[in-house]
Specification:
By secondary structure, the protein is of the alpha+beta class. The protein has one domain (18-200): Metal Binding Protein, Guanine Nucleotide Exchange Factor, Chain A (Beta Complex), CATH 2.170.150. 22% of the residues lie in helices and 27% in strands. It has three helices and six strands. The protein has helices at residues 18-30, 134-145, 182-200, and strands spanning 58-60, 63-69, 79-91, 97-108, 115-126, 152-159. A six-stranded antiparallel beta sheet has the order 1-2-6-5-4-3. The protein is globular. Keywords: DNA-binding, Nucleus, Transcription, Transcription regulation.
Length: 202
């Protein structure tokens, strides 16, 4: 990681659930608890366009992960991230709300002459009421005396495919960019051919 490349080694794939992102990564970041391995970098969202994340954020497949400081104004040099009004709760295994997930889309330019892109960001926030651990209570007391503390969010960014246009793509966060392999397509085509032959000989 010394060279700024946060890609995983060959054979490894980073595919955490929403609960894991909040409990095992964002919670550690916000509570100042060491996270091992510390593979998700800190980035300044205002200095990066989404297409500049490669080589800077943790990348796996077509998704990029990074921490950033929470800001009301999510502007970049030539665009901004706009909330689309979709917020989902992040629940633990015991159906306890531990966080929330907001959806944003990147726009180039300034409103109202901006242009919407296919870049989507899922922004994960902690829900303090969902934690009752000693480490979290200690962290909250420490933050009261540290006025420079700012909340962190964990971001997952990906480029929406053309096939997802007009669909509720935000409900498909765990299957972004999933396609059939060439072998699956061959098997499906063989099934179609077999059905046609069966109808001819029926």
């Amino acid at each position: 990681m010394a060279d700024g490349n946060f890609n995983l080694p060959p054979g490894f794939f980073f595919s955490p659930s929403d609960e894991e992102l909040v409990l095992h990564f964002l919670f550690c970041k916000a509570s100042l608890t060491p996270c091992h391995p510390n593979i998700i970098p800190d980035l300044d969202l205002s200095q990066l366009h989404p297409w500049d994340l490669n080589g800077k954020a943790l990348s796996t497949g077509n998704q990029y992960y990074f921490f950033t400081k929470l800001k009301e104004n999510r502007t970049a040099e030539n665009g901004y991230w706009k909330e689309i009004g979709v917020t989902e709760p992040v629940l633990s295994t015991f159906d306890k709300k531990v966080g929330m997930k907001k959806y944003l889309v990147y726009h180039i330019g300034e409103a109202p002459q901006d242009t919407e892109t296919n870049w989507v960001m899922q922004e994960y926030h902690l829900c303090s009421s969902g934690f009752d651990t000693a480490s979290y209570r200690t962290a909250r007391r420490r933050r009261k005396h540290d006025q420079s503390w700012k909340k962190w969010v964990l971001c997952r960014v990906y480029e929406k495919s053309i096939s997802e246009e007009g669909e509720n793509w935000y409900n498909d966060d765990d299957d972004c960019g999933t396609e059939l392999s060439w072998l699956d397509e061959v098997y499906l085509s063989l099934d179609d051919d077999f059905e046609e032959l069966s109808m001819l000989h029926a």
